[in-house]
Amino acid sequence: MDASLDLSRWRQTPRGVGYRRGVMIFTGLRQLLQLRLFKVLISVAWSAGLAVAALGFVFSQSVSSGGWVESLAVYFGPRGQAFAAVLSGLVLLYPDICIDGWFTAVFWGHSYLGLTLSLIALTAMVPRLIALDRATHALTVYLSRPLTSGDYLLGKLGLIAGVLALLWTGPLLFGWLLSVAFAPGTDFIVFSFGPLLRALAFHAVALVALSAIALGVSALSRTSRTATMAWIGLWLVFGAMAQPPQAPVWIKRASFTQNLAEARQGIFKLDRALTLAADTLPILDQRTKQNFAGAGRRAEAADFPGALASLAAFVVAACFVFLRRLRPE
Amino acid sequence: MNASSVADPTPSSSGSGDGRAWIIEAEGLGKTYGTHQALRDVTVRVPPGTIGLLGPNGAGKSTFIKCLLNLETPTAGTARVLGRDIRAANRSSRERVGYSPEQDCHIAGMVGCEYVTYCGQLSGMSLQLARQRTHEILDLVGMGQERYRPIDTYSTGMRQRVKLAQAFVHDPEVVFLDEPTNGLDPSGREHILRLIGSLHRDLGTSVIISSHLLRDIERVCDRVLIIGHGRLLEHDRIDALKERHRRIVEIAPAGERDRFLAAFAARGTPAVALSNGRLRVESADGSAGWILELMREHRLPPAEIVANPDALHELFIKAVASGQPGADDPAAPPLLADHGRQP
């Protein structure tokens, strides 16, 4: 072993803190992407994104004037042709209800899959966020460098945001862009933008809540098993307890997944889209109107402010936990 | 300078001899955990070089290092590392600083070279530069193909090497090494000590090395800080400390130890018999010539003579004892006592 010093010297100005945070995020993502589970989750998520694109594309191509529905209606006689013409007419006359309603329903459905994939991903990630760093004293490695505990947290938050972007936001945006790129009119862009913003708003709420809770749970323990069990308990056990309609309110508020479900109802406003369709669209018969109105009532958030307040309480409690543990041990 | 709660911050023989600024400046630095004062009123200015940080367990050495790195928040005083205030310039005070902690620390799931590269990037190096330098540094600390294995599978010695590599990767101007030879086999220890000894000489990288192994410190350092009971007890160049130390000569006779003792007693320089079979005498000028003359006069058998052995050990014990409450007690252990040192 030769201990002679023959080094290339490095005396350049170190890159900024933004670069160092980015290194934390991308290195973390690269490590996660080596796991088979993440490869599967990403495949499912982007397949769902393609499905969103397909649903938007098929809808826009079908109901537009001269689209597939009108072409096919020829084979169903004058009644079919009249129905197709009315359908196209409705989209032309009420784009705010038809296009907005369709995309709200699609994004609503996608949010279930996106949230579930994110929760599965976080189950695998929770031990890697803070618990393993505490177990291997990696915090000393980070904090003895030109990084603060705030930078470390931002790096971990960025890692969670990156995972959620890969599994949820990315596929959604990709699906929306692809569906409107081939839309026959600008109405499909303009009136699908509202549902997209609401979907992104729900993503933001979920990102803040899930990030804080995941970091808090990860900071609770130094062992992977305990951290994973705590996360699963908080997600599945409390989620199952809060599921029955007759469950006490405090149990519903104690389940972050239940709170997220109510936040989804409050943010997406699917109830408003259905009620508006039932009240406004002229060709709907009484039974369809009643079905729409009933579905709208069921999609209404029971206690949206309460759910948001509970999520905020989760975030505060989780911050209290992980901020206390962010010192080298 | 002994037994003072605050050692002279700029000892006579110190000074930033090569004209560079101090690497560490602490003013009244203190750290309290509840009612326990881990560090008390440490005021010191340290010039560049290879500096040994000595002190018994729980003396506050690691706390001192952690405070300088902001891993612990000082409860009193101020400090500057490489001229940057550790509180006001939190991040930038660590840009040119490396740290190899005593405890095992790594990032789970990473292979050795990936980990060191990552640490380089965290210090602001580009990926390409960090990769290039990682391999140079891993060669330097004696890591072979093991660098491509996950750190979780490393032996203690390999972990120690990779820990040192991450401390050096970004070419720091000052590096703090806490027990850097722990867990290394003799050849590995020798290699790392030679490396540490050459860092300041060849690269200008100052090293603060905390170790219990006084011989290691004596071998590679040109200056020592002795900390005891949270206080800085001594700070000076090693040769200056030795100058201040009473001249001690140790004799390991091949036989007839009693005749040696009688000869020294007859000369009026009584020798102390140590538990390891050696004799210890005080020499006015530190030379061993008069001992050879005495052996010739009394026809004594051959003996190994070592001038000023374990001066650092003696200084360490003396400084720590003087730092204790009741240090002025005349019943304190005399310098010539056998401190249980093993041969």
Describe the structure.
Chain A has 329 residues and is mostly helical. Chain A has 14 helices and no strands. The relative contact order of chain A is 0.12. The mean pLDDT of chain A is 86. Chain B has 343 residues and is of the alpha/beta class. Helix content of chain B is 32%, strand content 23%. A 6-stranded mixed sheet of chain B has the order 6-7-8-3-9-10, sandwiched between helices. In chain B, a hairpin with a 5-residue loop joins β12 and β13. Chains A and B meet through α1, α5 and α6 of A and α2, α3 and α5 of B.
List strands and helices in order, with pairings.
The complex is a heterodimer of chains A (about 325) and B (about 350).
Chain A: H1 17-33, H2 36-63, H3 68-73, H4 77-93, H5 95-135, H6 138-143, H7 149-181, H8 187-220, H9 224-242, H10 249-254, H11 256-268, H12 270-280, H13 286-298, H14 304-325
Helix pairs in contact in A: 1-7, 2-5, 2-7, 4-5, 5-7, 5-8, 5-9, 5-12, 7-8, 8-9, 8-11, 8-14, 11-14, 12-13
Chain B: E1 24-33, E2 36-46, E3 50-54, H1 61-68, E4 76-81, E5 84-85, E6 97-100, H2 112-122, H3 127-140, H4 156-168, E7 174-178, H5 186-203, E8 206-210, H6 214-220, E9 223-228, E10 231-237, H7 238-244, E11 248-253, H8 257-267, E12 272-273, E13 279-282, H9 289-297, E14 303-307, H10 311-323
Parallel strand pairs in B: 3-8, 3-9, 6-7, 7-8
Antiparallel strand pairs in B: 1-2, 1-4, 4-5, 9-10, 11-13, 11-14, 12-13
Helix pairs in contact in B: 2-3, 2-4, 3-4
